[in-house]
Amino acid sequence: MRLLLVEDERRIAADIASALAAAGYVVETVRDGEEAWFRGDTEDYGAVILDLGLPGMDGLAVLKRWRSNGRHMPVLILTARASWAERVDGIDAGADDYLPKPFRMEELLARLRSIVRRTAGHSSSVVSAGDIMLDERQMKVSVRGVPIALSPLEYRLVAYLLRHRGRVLSQHELDENVYGHGEDHDSNALEVLIGRVRKKLGPDLIETRRGFGYLVPETPA
Amino acid sequence: MRLLLVEDERRIAADIASALAAAGYVVETVRDGEEAWFRGDTEDYGAVILDLGLPGMDGLAVLKRWRSNGRHMPVLILTARASWAERVDGIDAGADDYLPKPFRMEELLARLRSIVRRTAGHSSSVVSAGDIMLDERQMKVSVRGVPIALSPLEYRLVAYLLRHRGRVLSQHELDENVYGHGEDHDSNALEVLIGRVRKKLGPDLIETRRGFGYLVPETPA
DNA sequence: AATGACCTGACAATTGGCTGACATGGATCA
DNA sequence: TGATCCATGTCAGCCAATTGTCAGGTCATT
Question: Could you tell me the sign of the dihedral formed by the alpha carbons of B139, B144, B147, B149, in that order?
Fold first, then answer.
């Protein structure tokens, strides 16, 4: 699972990141509010760990802005300022949980598991484009009602494409979100993957924008 | 909304109860673990506020027993003992949130709102999927009316799967909820368990989603 | 027509999951 | 105490699905 860690103190960030990595998460770290907001708004993370004491935009403001933009990923707030008023603010701003510093890494992991577990399957769950329907809860894809079996990678690709339909997605962006890493550009794995998906779901779902990337057109209601 | 408040100190209990009442909840108060367990097991509450330091049965034990009996109401744990290890235990025992004493009433209310909001839309004691019926009160499973004996672990697995049918459940999530802990990932115990359950309940109940986990499909009414 | 971007089919290495057999350890009972 | 049973974990081998790679192809743009 891919996580966004928002923490400005390098040492703390590094500690947390390595613990999370050891627990099997893919972690991206950012250090200021602006950047955090942008990432959280444009990328898909399984959860966000958000420090409140940030340079740039304040953590709570970032969170509120995500929520009002319809971004519902689970958010765990982290802060040294442990006043009760702030905890209330955090929870009412849409945080899923709240962890005062200092804390044990075990507790961070437990709470993270907990919020991820809780929010699994709260996402709006069914997306469609053209003849294709994607049910994110069941991880099922169907074409005109006929269910189609997809491999894990194929599914991740389709899910990402459909969630961001109506936008041109660069190969780099897809690489990053389908595989966990940036790109190895001496491989055409992604192109092959696209091909496989087209073979299963039909050639019309994914349009190629030569030189730019791929596009799943928005279906007019 | 009807709440169960489990707290042995009369003054604290009275304070909380009146604050909750003022906020519009209907509150029932009990003072010891045994009684708490019995009430929580037989009555339906919108949420439970559970103190851990109890005479009679320990709060955590009460919670675990509820959960293993399939009682899913949201539970907010309350305790003076604020060690991190205990918080982890509480969350892993199935608590929805955790509030260390002392706290402000506002924070209690905020957290309560939060867990109630999150768990909206759960509960009922008989679940079915396909030919399988699970009665959580009696901890009984039957296939087309024929009761099937399951071992404790098998039961926990089936109960968790059925409660969350219609969603793909990762091996990690199952590990966490069937065994009490995160995983020893060099063991295929879960796979073996799945196999055993399939042998008893038939091969069609649990679908494998290679690379993602398992799914008990929702039965269309 | 040249260029570079993209597509495709084949192939092999790897992985993930299933199964049967066995080991362990606790409970029960004579 | 010892015999036995049951629940559960471990292990090794098996099989099939998955996926990266590569070697050409095709296509749009200049």
Answer: negative
Chain A contact set for B184 (CB, 8 A): none
pTM of the predicted model over 0.70: no
CATH classification of the domain holding A172 = 1.10.10.10
Higher pLDDT residue, A66 or B93? A66
Domain enclosing residue A138, as ranges: 126-215
Q: How close B151 gets to chain A, by Cα (Å)?
A: 25
Q: What is the DSSP code string of B30-84?
A: E-SHHHHHHHHHHS--SEEEEESS-SSS-HHHHHHHHHHTT----EEEEES---H
Specify whether B77 is located in the same domain as B56.
yes
Strand D CB-contacts below 7 Å: A 149, 151-154, 179, 184, 187-189, 192-193, 196, 210; B 149, 151-154, 179, 184, 186-189, 192-193, 196, 210-211
Chain B residue nearest residue A82, CA to CA:
B103
| Residue at B221 is within a domain | no
pLDDT, greater one: B220 or B147:
B147
